[in-house]
Amino acid sequence: MSSLALVDEEAAAHYAGRPRVTIRRWAHEGRIQRYGKGRGKVRYNVFELHPAWRDPDTGELVTPGDTPAMPTRTSAA
After folding, report:
1. What three-state secondary structure class fits 37?
2. Is 49 helix (H, G, I), strand (E, B) or coil?
3. Each residue's pLDDT expressed in tens, for the chain with a length of 77 residues
């Protein structure tokens, strides 16, 4: 069973070291799951994101997290 740790868009973007629009695009592409509907009510599972590497002293972004993989598609017979 997979774990859920739901966070808002801003927290997901900070965790991944990516812009908020990138988090929305990844959800649209099916790379990550979107939970909820409506402005301010959408949440993302932080366990589906790759963490950014930040400087331990300053918290400044050093390297953003990797891009999640595209979902695998099955071909119709």
Report:
1. coil
2. coil
3. 468 999 999 999 999 999 999 999 999 999 999 999 988 899 999 999 999 999 999 999 999 999 999 988 776 66
Residue 48 near residue 7, CB atoms below 8 Å: no
Could you tell me how many residues make up the chain? Answer: 77
Give the per-residue pLDDT at 73: 78
Residue 62 phi/psi, 5-degree rounding, is -105, -55
Contact (Cβ atoms closer than 8 angstroms) between residue 23 and residue 12: yes
Three-class DSSP category at 75: coil
Check if the beta carbon of residue 33 is closer than 8 Å to that of residue 41. no
Residue 5 C-beta-side C-alpha neighbours within 13 Å: 7
Tokens of 10: 């801003």
Tokens of 73: 């598609």
